[in-house]
Design brief:
Elements (H helix, E strand, L loop, with lengths): L1 H11 L1 H20 L2 H9 L3 H28 L6 H11 L9 H12 L5 H26 L11 H4 L3 H8 L1 H14 L11 H28 L6 H20 L9 H10 L5 H38 L9
Helix pairs in contact: 2-14, 3-14, 4-5, 4-7, 4-11, 4-14, 5-6, 5-14, 6-7, 7-9, 7-11, 7-12, 11-12, 11-14, 12-13, 13-14
Amino acid sequence: MRVLAQVLRLLRSTPFRVVFVVAAVGLAVWAIWSDRDQIGVAVGRLSATALGLAAAASVANVLVTCLIWRSVLRDMGSPMPLRAACQVFLIGQLGKYLPGGVLQVVAAAELGSEHQVPRARTAAAMVVTILLSIVTGGLIVAASLPFVEVAAGSGLEWAAAAVPVLLVLLHPRVSSWALGHLLRVLGRAPVDITRSLRGTVAAGGWAALAWVAAGVQVLALSVGLGAEPTPSLLLLVTAGYAAAWVVGFAVIVVPAGLGVREVVLAAVLVNELGTAEVLVVVIASRALFTVADIALAGVALAVRGRTRQVRRGTGPRPGSR
């Protein structure tokens, strides 16, 4: 436990927070820079309308995901103002670009503590948010199978197989017990992280909306490259992206499922577009989500810095000239 205490002290230190942000942003930028030639070709083949709609859908997906976490946190008994919640979530979620993804949870917990929210509760809410995304993504995949033509090897046939088990794990009583037990094993002080079934369903609604936003992004890119815009295609790409994200998340050794997500999404789209067009879609999709993450985290950092200056009396107060 002494080692754990030392690790926690390190994670709470200002130098570590600075290094965390710089490293996470750096890796996210590197992910774009390393594929800059392919990304340039992809962007050049898309119309401004398709690219603009896809970019807007990417931003919407990230913001709605923040609302999932805020809804879960409120259900646990720690309501947080929208601005503060966005700052904590958008900055913390940069941790997914670091291998392992654990720092996404740790960073959110540390940032949440500045708003008098127990670290354990903030971290638990992030874990539940991820679980909600996985479960709702699996449900969308399962619901779509009777209505779409699935390419062989795409993985959609088996992606929903774990949904019944995950639904059990997501139940407030089960997940609250499991998270509480984990806290005890880690030697952390007990914190009330119980949730209601109603609150879980509400957060699940936000999660479903986030998947729809992701589907709209892939749809806009696909239609921009010649695919026929149909409800069936929207259902296919939404389910395809959900399956790709879940598989990419499961492969924790690569940051943000880099490469894994693209392979799965390409397998889903292979019957809808030519090989070259599929490559453009998966590259552009990754790039747009990464840019949205960085841009929104940058805005959150700027607002957070300004807020702290105002509190310390070192910056202009709201409404002043």
